[in-house]
Amino acid sequence: MEIILKEDVIGLGYKHDIVNVKPGYGRNYLIPQGKGIIASDSAKKMLAEELKQKAKKLEKIKADAENAAAKFEGVALTIPAKVSNNGTIYGSVNSLMVANELAKLGLEVDRKLITVKDIKTVGEHTALIRLHKEVSVTIPVTVVPEEAPVEEAPAAEAEAAPAGAPVDAELAEELADEQEVLEEMNAAPAE
């Protein structure tokens, strides 16, 4: 069944595309939802006339998409993720995480335009951003393990010393000397 799409449908096509779909998908989903119409001869003629009239607008939209694509030139993302001991990520890196990282760089992109292929390991990956049906951008994504909080170093030092003992080395040495003197006094035979 041929359908003329009235809006972009992810994974199927873009607005004004003529696509072949299974009859049930067209009758039960695309047409009732207003996402497409049956591609009859008269509908195809109307589409051709409409496209002629909108050619300049479409060129402008494509030029805007190309300008937006130029902003992504040289952009590389580094995304920290919680990682297990064998290098696999808890969960996965998805399009929302990529969109958030791009937003931090000042590049606003709808997450529905971003395609990420199953990122579940640490390392180099790619994300595809489809800005227009003829314009897409590939961005390198590096997934790195999250670093532990910096506060752990003083905590480890405090754990090494006994509870209530000073951490200063000189004081610790003086306490050790006093402890030896006390032990010698207790060990000496009483007269």
CATH architecture label of the domain at 70-145: Roll
Structural class label: alpha+beta
Low-confidence stretches: 150-159
Shape: elongated
Order of helices and strands: EEHEHHEEHEEEEHH
Number of helices: 6
CATH class of the domain at 70-145: Alpha Beta
Mean pLDDT across residues: 81
The beta-strand count equals 9
Roughly how much helix do the residues carry, as a percent range?
25-40%
Strand content: 25-35%
Q: Provide the CATH superfamily of the domain at 70-145.
A: Ribosomal protein L9, C-terminal domain
Head-to-tail CA distance between termini: 112 Å
Biggest β-sheet strands, sense, barrel: 4 strands, mixed
Q: Mind telling me the C-alpha Rg?
A: 32 Å
What spatial order of strands do you see in the largest sheet? Answer: 4-9-8-6
The CATH topology of the domain at 70-145 is given as Ribosomal Protein L9, domain 2
